[in-house]
Amino acid sequence: MSEPWALARSTSHRWTHQDIVESPLRGVELAAFLQRENGPGPRLYDEGRERLEGDFASIELRVLLPIRHPQAVVVWFLDGLSVLPTADDVDVVVRKLAERTGATWVVVDDPHADRPAADVARLVTEVVLRVRDGLPAHSGPDRPLIVGGQGTGALRALRAALAARDRQDPVAAVLLVAPVVEPPADPVPAGEGTAGTLPDAATIDAFWARYAAGGNADPVLSDDLSGLPPAVVLTAGLDPLADEGEALAQRLSDAGGQVLHYHHADEIHDFLVLLMLRASERGFQQLTRAVRAVIVKGEL
Question: Quick check: 190 pLDDT over 60?
């Protein structure tokens, strides 16, 4: 076992169980570990924060501009059920993605995973429309607009793409990392095979109960997924929700969409943010190639 992988498994196991859900201090502890191990992010051309107000309340958008004239805009929804408290805790990850892709990244930091489903629909629609209207600077109709996210953020990105399709104003692509689309069909038993994974089965159950409390848990796999833009789906073999992510990739393909599905068999749910893992680098490359392909060719 490689040293980085051993490090990730041993440290993730410290934050695996119910206390991670019940104690915000454990999330802070994990965030401090990631910031220490991942190191500083690259310096960008410009960055800022915007406030988006609506009848769904108020959320913060972090805008990362890697170069003076970026060639695309990526709206990235954070995982509302993550143990990491804020966008600051994954700052280096989105900075690196912005730098590599040459695209502006608009990071949607909404800590309220249990919003009612109707509020979520309005929120994701308003974010996309706001970016279409010119937030941030250098966005607009002449630049591809891509939506994406990790975990429940991936579900929000997918719902944003569905809403854009229904408005006949489609986005250019969808990036879905370890998507949380519905609870596991066959819950992973606690014990052997789940130790060291983040999240484990008990954590998934607790997170999903919180998510479902707001009426957000309508299974997206039963939706009409036709007419969606090209999609990139990253799944992880040690993620209890890997099967549901793979099923989503298959459903998108069956609906006639172009799908690039990359399965990281030996990785955990949060592998992308653990930059010491080789799989994180592979995930970065896969996402970067997709964004660059949309910029250059208009497709994956």
Answer: no
Quick one: average pLDDT of 3-7?
A: 41
Residues 29-43 pLDDT 10s: 666 676 677 777 888
**One-character DSSP codes across 131-179:** HHTT-STT-STTS-EEEEEETHHHHHHHHHHHHHHHTT---SEEEEES-
Cα–Cα distance for residue pair 62/298, rounded to 1 Å:
26
pLDDT value at 118 more than 80: no
Q: Is residue 64 a contact partner of residue 92, using CB atoms and an 8 Å limit?
A: no
Q: What CATH number matches the domain at 3-297, 3.40.50.800, 3.90.226.10, 3.30.1330.60, 3.40.50.1820?
A: 3.40.50.1820
Banded pLDDT at 22 (limits 50, 70, 90): very low
pLDDT at 136: 59
Provide the CA 278 distance to its chain's centre, in angstroms: 19
Distance in angstroms (rounded) separating the CA atoms of residues 81 and 217? 13
Estimate the crossing angle of helix 278-297 against helix 91-101, to 10 degrees: 40
Query: Which positions ≥6 away from 199 have C-beta within 8 Å?
Result: 16, 20, 83, 207, 240, 269
- Distances in Å between the Cα of 260 and the Cα atoms of 97, 149, 154, 208, 270 are 18, 15, 15, 27, 19
